Amino acid sequence: MKYTMLLCLSLFFSLFTVLSQAQTKETFEVQKIAPGLYFHFGHHELPNRENHGGIANIGFVVGKSCVAVLDSGGNPQQGLVLKNTIEKITDVPICYVINSHVHPDHVFGNRSFKGKGVQFIGHKNLARALQLRSAFYLQRSEEQLGVKLTPQDIVLPDIMVADSLTLDLGGRLLTVTAHGSAHTDNDLSVLDKSSQTLWLSDLLFVEHLPVIDGSLKGWLKELKELSLLKVKRVVPGHGPVMGDWPAALKPQVDYLTMLLKEVRSMIKQGKFIEQAIVEAGQTAAGRWALFDAFHKKNVTLVFAELEWED
Ligand SMILES: [Zn+2]
């Protein structure tokens, strides 16, 4: 009896080991969008218990001596799968993990990249934003995504970018730029000079409704400056890679400008926020994925931003 039990236990643990080894070696599909530049594209979904928050575009750039990760994913497991995928494609070590901004679908794979020789890079406001929101994010992750996170999953940046920073990956230069308040108050973009690719993460939404968590006026200002850059392609945080820059920006700029005009006009007419939430920007419904999930929240934030302007 004892022997049978031991045998069962031993078989169970062998199976568990095999399964966990299989799990740690899991990889996913990435698209090579330029030499040495790869992205895994997310779907237009809300974070839930099926996708576990893995909904954003995440990727990596390979230089001669270093790999830079461009957002780590929505949970530690997705981060691990991204890491496995990188290791399957190249022997070049990972030196940098660039966090585009504070949102969980972009940074909660960080823990899987922690280790010797890896530096985390974020906007100068990222650490503060992570600290302010960490308790809420940790709690919500378990409730909504079925992912148990711990304070170790809040990885603060080693290098904070206040203006801009050039990273040399070995024959490949990345320009990391810190932006003023826009999608959030801690947005970074990255220009890969050798492929003339601009990674905007959530500074650009394609197909998916743009989500405001920083400043509408600030975002329009940053987009105006970004539109002047001469690049071959841009990679949004959500949606496909776009080759036509700055034309690719137009739907987002149109939506944000329309919100600005309509909400400003309602405030001037003495309308209340409750009315604005119901009425403003409704002509854009049907043009964007996840409009119902985010539009009213956008109007609420825009109303608060514009209410006291001169
Ligand atoms: Zn975001």
Topology:
Layout: H1 2-24, E1 31-34, E2 37-40, E3 58-62, E4 67-70, H2 76-89, E5 94-98, H3 104-107, E6 119-123, H4 126-145, E7 159-161, E8 164-168, E9 173-178, E10 188-192, E11 197-205, H5 216-226, E12 233-238, H6 250-268, H7 273-279, H8 291-306
The chain binds zinc ion.
Zinc ion (ZN) is lined by residues 101, 103, 183, 202, 237.
* Assigned CATH superfamily: Ribonuclease Z/Hydroxyacylglutathione hydrolase-like
Number of strands: 12
Rg (C-alpha, Å): 21 Å
**Number of continuous helical runs:** 8
Name of the CATH architecture: 4-Layer Sandwich
Strand content: 15-25%
Can you describe what's shown?
Helix 5 packs antiparallel against helix 6 and helix 7 runs antiparallel to helix 8. The protein has one domain (27-247): Ribonuclease Z/Hydroxyacylglutathione hydrolase-like (Metallo-beta-lactamase, Chain A), CATH 3.60.15. Residues 5-9 and 11-22 have low confidence and may be disordered. It has helices at 2-24, 76-89, 104-107, 126-145, 216-226, 250-268, 273-279, 291-306, and strands at residues 31-34, 37-40, 58-62, 67-70, 94-98, 119-123, 159-161, 164-168, 173-178, 188-192, 197-205, 233-238. The protein has a 7-stranded mixed sheet with strand order 1-2-3-4-5-6-7, with no helix packed on it. It has a 5-stranded mixed sheet with strand order 8-9-10-11-12, with no helix packed on it. With 310 residues, the chain is α/β, with parallel strands linked by helices. It binds zinc ion. The site of zinc ion has 5 residues, from loops. Zinc ion (ZN) is lined by residues 101, 103, 183, 202, 237.
